[in-house]
Every structure is written in C-alpha cells, then in structure tokens.
Amino acid sequence: MKRIIGIWAALVVALSGSAQTAPGDPGPKGAARRNAAQTAGQPVPELRFRSDGRFRIMQLTDLHYTESERQSGHVLPMVAELIEREKPDLIVLTGDVIYARNAEKLLRRIGGFLHKQGVPYAVTLGNHDAEQGLTRAEVYDIVRTLPGCVNARYNPAGERQGDFVIPLAATDGSCAAALYVMDSNDYNADDHSYAGLEAEQVAWYVRQSEALEARCGRKVNALVFLHIPLPEYREAFDGDPQAVGFRLEKESPGRDNRGMFEAMVRRGDVAGVFAGHDHANNYIALKEGIALGYGRYSGGFAEYQELLSGARMIELRQDRTGFATWERLANGREMRRTVFPRQ
User: Fold this and answer.
1) What is d(CA 315, CA 190) in angstroms, rounded to the nearest whole number?
2) Which single residue of 129, 147, 162, 241 could bond 115 by disulfide (Cβ 3.0 to 4.6 Å)?
3) What is the CB-side half-sphere exposure of residue 141 using CA atoms within 13 A?
C-alpha cells in the first residue's frame, strides 16, 4: 500500500506542469501571457476524495457566454446557485465557453467568478471558442493563467493543450480514479464538418491508460470529458432500451471515427464519457459497458436553447468502479439520477 501511495504521489507530480503558455503563441501578447502565467497563476491542491469516500464533479457545457445581459446575464448567478446546492469538488467546462470577440475579457470574468466560488475547475474547448478573435493556442494560453484553473498543473507547457489527465487520490493518498480531459477540435479544413478526436489523441489516451495501470498496479476507474460527442453516441441511444434522458436533435459527432471508443473498450478502464455540443440532448446510454452521456446545457440565450439550463453532476466512489449521475436544473430540481454500472 505504501508503495502504491508513493507511486500515485509521484504521478501527481509528473502530471503537474509549470504555469506557462502553450507553445506556438507568437508575439508580445504571448510573452506577456507567459509572464502572467508564471507570476499570477494560483497553486492548485491535489484532488482527493472526501473523507466519506466520494468525489463530486459538476460538468458545465456550452455556456456560449457574451457580455449581453439579455443573452448571458443569468448564467453566472445560476452557476453560483448550482455550486451552492451541489458543492462539487471539481468543475469541468466541456467547451463553447465564450461566444463573443472580447474573448480574453470574458474568459477572465468566468475564471475569476469560478475562483471566487472556491471550486477548482478544468477547461477544454469546443468548436466556437477559437472563433472570437483568438487562436486555439491563445485561448489555452489565457486559460492556463486563470486563478483556480487546474489546466496548467496537469497539462504542462510543451504538450498538446486541452488533452490531460487529472488523477484523483483516495483518502489515504493511493490511486483511486482518473479523469481524461480531451480537446475534440473544431472543423475539418476540406468541408468544414466537425473534426472530433484525431488518431494521435487516441494513441495518447492508450499510452496514458497503460501508464496509469503500470504505476498503480491495476486499472483505475476513469471518465472522459470532451465537447464533440463520439460517433457511437447514436448507436448507444438507439440500442439501449434503458437509456436515461432524451434526444431532441440529431447527434453531431466528428466526421471521421478514429477509434477512440474501440480503444476504451480494449483498455477497459473508462466507465463513462461526457460531451456537450448538442444543446437539446441530455441522455446517457450504455454501449459495450461504457456509458455515453451529454452534459446538461448550461448556457443562456446566445445560441439555441430547448432545455432549461443546468448542469450534469457525476459522483465517484473510491471503493467501487462506475459512478452516479443526475441533472441539476436552474430551477433547483434534480432530474434522472442513475447509477452505472446499472444495479
């Protein structure tokens, strides 16, 4: 046990990067942000299960945040109420965070707000985040400097930005769980269809999963968070008579299937995948032992909205695989609590 605890502590250190910008950010703005990341980044503590053996995650997706009071004025107050009610240990923002060209100002407003709530948070981008006057690298460069954000710790400078692993320690410091946060990219250059995960990202997941198993002496309970759903989502919903939630629009996965789902099935560690992107879908369905789910649309009226805003909650237990999940709505209601693996 002591050896496993020591290995997990070393893994946390190995996954912790210095607060520097992503590579490829040219010019004086990039240099200024690098300096800001080195001097103003906030220390992020190790993420550990609570004394009762639980760890609670709030997924916020598709905020589509703007400066317009009509479009977005209610979003952050709603999130504050959700946090107060659910008391998450970590928030994961799964893309399409901002939706206006004053991108840096909006990102810093959201980051400062979340920091004041006292909850660490992780960020991966959607297809719209780099349409607001900044490149994808520049957006991640800003994200790395946000107070309370875990990206800089777990996504070291020099690595592909937006893809990282967050290890969760048990109450005694040993291996407990892992969260894979992945950037599902934006558009294919030839036809502007949705890109989805690339082949090298699938290979990266396999390497990380194998490394975790080697360090911990076993496979650890894992979840994946990304923006664009995997192509298998449609098959899961159509093929699972016990699917929870509903589909109000056609799924919009990446055009090309690079084999992420098959890789997760082979590795046997991922219990669930959580996406955003399709605002009117909220289901979670089972395929080959992996739950494929949508986060609850968390944004305002800057984009189409057919569901009442809210958040998806996911709760892990350090003594078992799988998870419990439910939706918490803006009106305070809890909806569709379920457990995977199914009881």
Assistant:
1) 40
2) 147
3) 24
Q: What is the pTM of this model?
A: 0.89
In this structure, are residues 330 and 324 in contact, taking their beta carbons and an 8 Å threshold?
no
Q: Are 148 and 206 in contact (CB under 8 A)?
A: no
Please state, in angstroms and as integers, the Cα–Cα distance from residue 64 to each residue in 82, 149, 185, following that order.
18, 19, 17
CA distance linking residue 122 with residue 101, whole number of Å? 22
CA distance 275 to 215: 28
Contact of 127 with 98, CB cutoff 8 Å: no
Cβ–Cβ under 8 Å, residues 66 and 33: no
Query: Max CA-CA distance within the chain?
Result: 56
Q: What does the mean pLDDT of the chain come to?
A: 89
Burial (0-12, 13-18, 19+ Cβ within 10 Å), 4:
middle
Spell out the residues 6+ positions from residue 280 whose beta carbon is closer than 8 angstroms to its own.
247, 248, 249, 297, 304, 306, 307
Question: What's the CA gap between 135 and 143, in Å, rounded?
Answer: 12
**CA-CA distance, 171 to 50, in Å (whole number)?**
7
Separation of alpha carbons 232 and 291, rounded Å:
11
CATH number at residue 215: 3.60.21.10
Assign 280 a pLDDT band (cuts: 50, 70, 90).
very high
Instruction: Report helix, strand and coil shares of the chain as percent, to nearest 5.
Output: 30, 25, 45
Nearest CA to 96 among 305, 325, 314?
A: 305
Count of structural domains, the chain: 1
With contact defined as beta carbons under 8 Å apart, do 325 and 55 qualify? Answer: no
pLDDT bin (cut points 50, 70, 90) of residue 44 is: low
- Reported as a single tens digit per residue, the pLDDT across 119-138 is 999 999 999 999 999 999 99
142: left (phi over 0), alpha (psi -120 to 50) or beta: alpha
**Paired residues of 210 in beta bridges:** none
DSSP per-residue string spanning 205-270: HHHHHHHHHHHHTS--EEEEE-SSPPTHHHHHHHH-TT-BS-B-S-----SS--SHHHHHHHH--E
